Amino acid sequence: MRLHNVLFDFDGTLANTLPLTVHAMKKVFKRFDSRTVTTDEVIAMFGPPEEKMISMNLTNQADVAEAVEFYFVIYEKQHDAYVEKNLEIFKLLHLLRDRNINIGLITGKARRSYLISEKKLGFGGKFDSIITGDDVSVAKPDPEGINRTLKKFDALPEESIYIGDANGDTLAGKAAGIHTAAVQWLEMAQSSEFPAKPEFYWTKVEQFIAMLNNEIE
């Protein structure tokens, strides 16, 4: 398999931002609904961007706008405490760039929170295409974002792969007709199991690099 287009999810795949998202969401529901939500309950809300996560799940609908702003304040202020730059990920991105492989990002997170993470972690200029949850009409596992990226790259399906930490990422990649890989190579992943059966499963960034180098681990 020769890859010319590598597409990534973001949270839990390129950056360990899931703990921060969960933390900020817990703060939102505690403050505006006076209720304690568990980590699993927050993860079950994932799919749409954070504004929709809040609006769809907050009982106190009158405070949705304020709750959304509160979320982004927490996300930005606590980012440094919760998320560290992963040098292995950047090594991988540099390798892909050196090989003239198109790099796409398709994330369900809001563009506002993505841009916060992009700036703080140094992802600016690393991607040839970025599609956030604000840019699609239907969230993953719908393949809309992947299909739009493939069209932009004029990509052949057999030369393309979508890599993510959620079972929904695998479903989206399969729906788009491209190769799929599930990863649990960061500290926290969205899914613990992948019933959608991705073609590849990696727990270390080096495993993907080895495949790119035509090595077998």
Strand order of the largest sheet: 3-2-1-4-5-6
Q: Which stretches are poorly predicted, pLDDT < 50 over at least 5 residues?
A: none
Report strand %: 5-15%
What is the string of SSEs from the N terminus onward? EHHHHHHEHEHEHEEH
Q: By helix and strand content, what is the structural category?
A: alpha/beta
Percent helix: 40-55%
Measured between the Cα atoms of the first and last residue, the distance is 16 Å
The count of strands amounts to: 6
Let me know the average pLDDT: 96
Question: Sheet with the most strands?
Answer: 6 strands, parallel
**SS field, number of helical segments:** 10
> Overall 3D geometry?
globular
Rg, alpha carbons: 17 Å
Describe this structure as you would to a colleague.
The chain contains 10 helices and 6 strands. The protein has 217 residues and is an alpha/beta fold. Strands 3-2-1-4-5-6 form a 6-stranded parallel β-sheet, sandwiched between helices. α9 (167-175) links the parallel β4 and β5. It is globular. The two termini are 16 Å apart.
SSE map:
Layout lengths: L4 E4 L9 H16 L5 H7 L4 H8 L6 H14 L1 H4 L4 H12 L3 E5 L4 H11 L7 E3 L12 H10 L6 E5 L2 H9 L3 E5 L16 E3 L2 H8 L5
Parallel strand pairs: 1-2, 1-4, 2-3, 4-5, 5-6
Helix pairs in contact: 1-4, 3-4, 6-10
